[in-house]
Amino acid sequence: MHRKFLEKSAAILVMLIASTALPVLAGQKHVTDQWGREMMVPDNPQKVVSLAPSITEIIYALGQETRIAGATVYSNFPEAARALPRVGSYVKLDIERIAALSPDLCIAIKEGNPIAAVRRIESLGTSVFAVNPTDLWTMLDAVDQIGMLLNAEDKARETIVRLESRINAVRQAVQKAGTKPRLFFQIGISPIVGAGSSTFLHNLIEQAGGKNTSAGPTAYPRYSREQVIHLDPEVIIISTMARDTAFDQVKAEWEKWPAITAVRSGRIHIVNSDIFNRASPRLVDGLEILARLLHPELFP
User: Fold this and answer.
1) How many CB atoms sit inside 10 A of residue 262's CB?
2) How far is residue 299 from each of residues 227, 271, 288, 291, measured CA to CA in Å?
3) Residue 88, phi-psi category: left (phi > 0), alpha (psi -120 to 50), beta (remainder)
4) Boundary (domain end) residue, out of 152, 178, 199
5) Can you tell me the distance from the alpha carbon of 196 to that of 216, in angstroms, rounded to the nearest whole number?
6) Residue 270 belongs to what domain range?
7) What angle do CA 271, 272, 275 make, to 5 degrees?
8) Domain check: are 51 and 116 in the same one?
9) Could you give the angle at the alpha carbon of 94 between the alpha carbons of 29 and 151, nearest 5°?
10) How far apart are the C-alpha atoms of 185 and 239, rounded to whole Å?
11) Angle CA(141)–CA(143)–CA(146) in degrees, nearest 5?
12) 3-state secondary structure string across 54-88
């Protein structure tokens, strides 16, 4: 009697659990995205719309670019990505254009794509999965998650192992440094903007063995030149899409302030903003570039 009661209770429990779970249909899989939403997505999506440039770069890194049906503007790496159909910017998505592409999956970025736009896409019957790359480590998580979505788990694991090896090599190298140079990382040309403690740029600076002079609660604080003089950075790095003449002009502006250690020592550099402003595998390139600029003695 007792055994029959237990068997019946177990059967009822299984039925209750099954009744509350999302139904698993043929050709679909049950996943949870970085908004914490449980959903069903296609098991083998063939038409994927990337809703941020960093996502486009990850898909290419996984060798799954033939699945991309559309991407946001500024998805410009690798070069072939420039030819992809555009679906607006990641903050202002073109819902009609997305609908016209008839994707079976959209991949969003949690900190960037407006949730209202995501809900509109979902109302059209398309699944939207959000990743949340906010630093080196969560970028690797995004690679893993996108690999899972696209059935490219082996390539994702291979990519993650390779990137982790490069990250660890930099971290081990900078441990030999005697100091952490004060770095002012300037985002763009004008106004003068730094990167606060909540940004992945701050994380990158720390991992590269530097001290971020803009560390603090404001994500992207603005500065006057006088304030930067007070910070007295040993290195100034300017992240911008501008080149040549624009950089020469901004460098000349800084050189008017020889009270700054970085100016006196000639340590003013320009870097490609795409590498540093996107949480994609190229963020590891950014880490290596930063480490070399901060500690040239360790990377001859």
Assistant:
1) 23
2) 31, 17, 9, 8
3) left
4) 152
5) 5
6) 165-298
7) 115
8) yes
9) 25
10) 7
11) 105
12) HHHHHHHHCCCHHHEEEECCCCCCCHHHHHCCECE
Helix (H) or strand (E) holding 120: helix 115-123
Structural contact between residues 169 and 102, judged by C-beta atoms closer than 8 angstroms: no
pLDDT digits (tens, 9 = 90+) for 98-152: 999 999 999 999 988 999 999 999 999 999 999 999 899 999 999 999 999 999 9
- State the pLDDT confidence band at 25, using cuts at 50, 70 and 90: low
pLDDT, tens digit, 9 for 90 and up, residues 147-159: 999 999 999 999 9
Rounded Cα–Cα distance for residues 221 and 197 (Å) = 10
- Whether residue 61 is found in the same domain as residue 122: yes
Say if residue 180 is exposed, middle or buried (CB neighbours under 10 Å; 0-12, 13-18, 19+).
Answer: middle
Looking at the fold, whether 148 and 218 belong to one and the same domain comes out as no
Same domain, 174 and 285: yes
Residue 234 clears pLDDT 70, i.e. is over it? yes
Residues 188 and 215 sit within 8 Å (Cβ to Cβ): no
Q: Is the dihedral of CA 271, 272, 273, 277 positive or negative?
A: negative
Write down how long the chain is. 300
Domain membership of residue 13 (yes or no) is: no
